[in-house]
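Q: Got a minute? One more chain.
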Amino acid sequence: MLGNLIYPNGDLVGLNFMSLPASFISSELPIFTSSQSYFLKSSFDDQGLEDRECFVQILLHNVWGSGTIISKDGLILTCSHLVKYGAIKSDLQVKVRNRLYAARVVFSTPYGHLYELAVLKITYTLLDSYPGVPICLRSSAGILGEEVFAVGYSLFEGSKKPCVTRGIVSKLAQHSIITTCYVNKGASGGAVVDRNGQLLGLIISNVRTKESVFPNVNVNVAVYSFRTSLEKFIETRGIPL
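A: Always. Here it is, folded:
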C-alpha cells in the first residue's frame, strides 16, 4: 500500500492506493481498495459484484453517477438529483459493459419529494445485447446490523468496473437506510445490496458538513418502501411512484 486517498480538506476518502507487481498490471484487478474491507469476489456470487452487468455508470456532460438496471428492456433506477429532479430529459449516456447507450429520463421525483428517485430508459433495447439478469428488488425491510454492500462508480469517471465496499445497516427509518459502507462522489444513484444480491437501497449521499465529509456514513432510500409502486411502473410505464 502506498497511502490513503484524501479530500483537499484532509478528510479520508476511505480508499487506499496500492502498488501492484508488474505481472498484475495487464490484468483487470482494481488498484483501489476500501479500508472498510473492499472485496474482489463476493461471498454470494462467484463472479463478484463488480462483474455484474446490472450496475451501470450514468454520464451527463462532465458529471457522472451510478444506476442499476431493473428491467430487461433497459429501465434504470437512479437518484433524481443526478438528473436535476427531472429538468434534464435527454443528453444522457449509460455505460453498460463498457458500451455507451443513449438514455432519457422517463420519471423523476421533484425536489423535496420523500423519495429521491429517477427512472431512465436506454433508447436502444438491450434484449439482444444484454445477457445479464436485471437486479432483483428485495421484498423485505433492512435489518439493523446486517451486512450490506454499496456498488457505485465512485471518484473516477473512466472506471471500467464499479467500486464495491462492505458495511452494515447502522440505522433504519421508515423510508431510508443508513449504512457504514464507504460512499464517495460518483456513487450517487448506485445500489446497496444484501448478501443475496438483492437491491436493498438506493444511494443518495454520504453525510457531510461544511468542514468535513463522512464517506462511511451514507443515506439511502429504502427499496422496500417503494417496491410495489416501482414494479407497477415497470409493468405499465406510467403509474406514478
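A: The first strand starts at residue 3 and ends at 6.
Q: Perfect, thanks.
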